[in-house]
Amino acid sequence: MPAERAPMRKVREVLRLRHALGVSERQIAVTIGVSRSTVGEYLRRAAVIGITWPVPEGLDDAELERRLFTPPTFDETPARPLPDWRQVHKEVAERLKDEYLEKMFRDDMPKALFEFSLVGPDDLPPTRQSTTDDG
Question: What pTM does this model have?
């Protein structure tokens, strides 16, 4: 579970300390009370969207949070269409039924009879033609 995000005033303070005063990430982390990796992540995200100190006027906390923490390529539609789960269920059920029947016949039928049932008509030896005359 991801950690809870710091308030935007702390993010603004990170930007101010780094860009206005040149304080190190480690010192910022101690001053603000967050981890050094969190400070680095905030600075990296701000650099990606081009925000430094001073934060542009008119950029309220909600907009700053949206820009920093919303993926730039967020798309509501999935990349691939979802499967038709009814069809998947049907295919799996048919396959399981076939496997069950095969196992049942294999276990209950004598081995020779089972092997014979797997032989197709083309695999059988040719039968002898009757040589008797009926007329």
Answer: 0.50
